[in-house]
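ligand=pyridoxal-5'-phosphate
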Amino acid sequence: MIEENLVKVEKFIQIAKKNCPHQEDITLIAVSKTKSIEDVKKAYEVGIRDFGENKVQELIDKYEALPKDIKWHMIGHLQRNKVKYIIDKVHLIHSVDSLKLAEAISKEAMKHNLCMPILIEINIANEISKFGVCLDDAEELVKNIAKLKGILIQGVMTVAPFVENEEDNRVYFKRLYEFFIDIRDKNIDNTNMRYVSMGMTGDYKVAIEEGANIVRIGTGIFGNR
Ligand SMILES: *Cc1c(COP(=O)(O)O)cnc(C)c1O
């Protein structure tokens, strides 16, 4: 089932890419939260290497149990006091939305003598239920985080609203992509803006058409949670 789902998702990604004027490489992250080690192994065996988790403990457990060439993506809300458990295990932290969290990442990264790639999570539709910095405050946050050592901002991420019709999210994806281009073109020191992480099972096709180059797909690969 996982293999068939992946074939389908990858086909839809290729189709959506044709409708995207930028035509970039797209990274598919298989969101394995709540799913078993066996399920991750199945996706691994058909070639997936990027996996997304939203809880620190679950990420660590899977990290320990699975091959070391997996790139783990932290996509969920991260508490400052838990940064130390994952700092040397994750490939990219997608969910940085405050200077305080960035400072904690910077501190732990320096202890390990590494530079942690991160994305800035933006609450693009200003939903009260969601994490993320609002768009109006995002540029200032980028500038402040860029001053920290041991951390490298590589782009932006959003979790768009839950909608029945993915077209309803097009406006939000457009808005995030515009922000990404604006901030990228400012060439802020110590940033390397290259990733736009947006689009989940319900809306990744539209997200890709609007410029996503990382999509995070759980249900569409592993089935319902
Ligand atoms: C769970 C989750 C996803 C994947 O959601 P699906 O709708 O199952 O594809 C993507 N991004 C984040 C941040 C998530 O928490």
